[in-house]
Input
Amino acid sequence: MNMLLSLRRYGQSVWLNGFERGWISRGELQQYIESDGLTGVRSNFQSLQVAIERHEYDRDFSILAQQGMSRNARSDYNYLIVRDLQLAADLLKQVHSQTQGCNGYVQIDLPPDALLSPQTAIAAAQDIWQSVGWSNLLLRIPATQLLLPVIEHLIGNRINVNATLVFSPSMYEQVFDSYKRGLESLIQQGKPMNDVVCFTTVPIGRLDRAFDPLITDTETSFSVMQAKLLYQHYRNLCQSVDEAFPLETRWQSLPEGVKPLRLVWDCTDIPPESAWRYIPTLVAPETVMMLEPSTLLKYREVSLLPTRLTEDEQAEQHVTNGLSEISLDERVDQLVNEEMARSLNAFQQLLDTIEQKRRR
Output
């Protein structure tokens, strides 16, 4: 049994990062779905740029030029990404149907320059949602204070969201509240909610690089300890295991069948040779593991013996140990700013590559 099927056996879904057109033309995505049990993919700016440089999209650029549709790099990007998302969503639609909407998603980040205000983010999200036209599309929105209202608005308009850059339980709770208010808006409008989803993504490697040097009294990585706390919050909020939890009654007031706010462990920036330190410890039912294809290939024929991401009464204490000289919230804010800047830079490089193609 390979790694993806092993994780699936323990109730965990696996999504792969870096989807681009070659996955379709070479049949790789179909193989991942049929042979490995893959249940979701993500397109990102860097992978798309590399694929364009490898000439994967030359035919698309020729069509755009011949039909006079190529106006600028941004319009070409929109054409390419909408086509990619439609093709992937089509292949994953059976997974989406078989899992009653719990899996089978293709996800995409909004253009980073559209995230500078709630209004531009909402407009960009609505545009790509309508252009793709598939219900198993998932739009990635950073869970910043500025954009939390965007998450609420999109859910209230029945647009699926993956709230990214969730580094702490407090951020998870804020996303939960935005998701909840969006669902309550649907109730007020008399619209169905059972086919609307919201996920939260936790960047595992980025957490460790930022905080592991400050943790001196435990062998457990900071990210795994945070994951334990976040999973406890997930269970308290969505699985009704703690009657004293203050937000639980609000969740129970929703109609039956509403999707919980599931967690995605983003391990895409962990080198394949280091991934085995994390993967077995992050196995937890109803969560998602997002991996690089290179990590899957390295461990494809490995069956897991997971240690399970169980509750740990000492996790919260471990998280705070060694952090007395630095504000956790301040460091998290810095991490979010760094990731937003990195995304903006990657998107600009992608547009530059597209412009070079246009000129040729």
Summary: The first helix runs from residue 3 to 9. The first strand starts at residue 13 and ends at 17. The chain is about 50% helix and 10% strand. The CA atoms of residues 167 and 332 lie 7 Å apart.
